[in-house]
Amino acid sequence: MTRQMVMVGFLQAQNCTNLPSSWRHPDSRDDSMSADYYQEIARILEAGKFHMAFFDDRLAMPDRYGNDHRHTVEYGIRCVKMDPIVVLTTMGMVTEKLGLASTCSTTYYEPFDVARRFATLDLMTGGRAAWNVVTSVNDGEAHNMGRDQHLEHDLRYDRADEFMEVVLGHWDSWEDGSLLIDKKSGRFADPDKVKRLDHRGPFFKSRGPFTVPRSSQGHPVVIQAGASGRGQRFAGRWGEVIFTAARNLANAKQGYDAIRNEAAKAGRDPDQMFLCNLITPVSGATKSEAEDKMALIQKLPLEIDALSLLAEGLNFDFAAKGIDEPLTTEELQGMQGMLGIRDGVLRTSGKTNPSTRDFVTFSGRGQTADAIVGGPKEIADRLEEMFAGRGCDGFVIAATYVPGSYADFVHHIVPELQRRGLFHKDYAGKTLRENLGLPRPAAGAWKTSPRIAAE
């Protein structure tokens, strides 16, 4: 079968998209705390045959800049953060085939809880759920969840590895065929096919038995987005859909090959995973129309947007230094969280000790510099180049305003990608795995990796 793109809608259960200034757009809906807001997005994405609607999430509003939340609230910088899993249930009610994915942290939840939440969502949506596995990024989240500080970077991933083993172990607890529901005999399920996990490890203890049977797709699809070396090893071991954020084909290919190599080292088939690169399209019927839209969008971001998101993402208070003062090597090494941002700034700026202004300029955080602007041909050409050049297997579509950005992409770009044979014209099945082309996992299949078997 001809290789085709995977398409994901990038959402937040908050007052703006991942672009903090999106709420300021005159055409953005201002009822982002209503079910109808998200249901309209869901209908648009399903009409465009998107594989998934995906929610990013944090457990704190950005408040690391100046160690204060006032700027966040005043300027609407991701200050509202609702529970995305609850929001997904409302979207599931108005769709039939759109995959429904959410972030949930391995650092601040218990494995049984996460396993049950997503297994329930999977059943309630007919096998359309996916879990984005994250380790969280900053001290604000730690403080909200009863901790004094955020865990060290690699330790978070060590803990997350065991977290995955517990979650997958619970998801495997009910074998296929365990449900009998025989009213005549009075037997609901076969107890020989429901096992206790009895896990005891360095980080977790979890007994079981699990309380949610397997869904029609087996268990939720696992998403990951690790960008550091340790994050890529984690993604290669566990991820089925991997989110990346390369800014050009050369960097995309490097990351693509690195994660696929990690998957091969873990004993997995790299062709059974999909790497989807984040893009921000600004599209119209023509390039001129798209440029007019972009001219308005470019007026919306504020410098504080970038400063706030940089401080949040790197768990570092950029307000502590002058904006043009070079950061010391010790300060750079002390950054945590999304270290791919730091490494990208060092690489792109070419400076050993960049300033805060360099971070604003070269990171792209809170800005629109990386937007792809054009009509159907221009945007499809860019996507085809990265896809055909094996920089990714699909795209995560970010919005500059809601719901217009998604509607524009579905109306203008999707038909052109379909015309070129790069994107499917309809869903292959009902479950997310069917639509991605992923096999339904057999219970315990994840344990067959040589790396896992040795541990």
UniProtKB/TrEMBL annotation:
The keyword RNA-binding does not apply. The keyword Flavoprotein applies. Residues 28-391 form the Luciferase-like domain. GO terms for molecular function: monooxygenase activity; oxidoreductase activity, acting on paired donors, with incorporation or reduction of molecular oxygen. Keywords: Flavoprotein, FMN, Monooxygenase, Oxidoreductase. Signal peptide: none annotated. SUPFAM superfamilies: Bacterial luciferase-like. Coiled coil: none annotated. This is FMN-dependent oxidoreductase, nitrilotriacetate monooxygenase family. It comes from Bradyrhizobium lablabi.
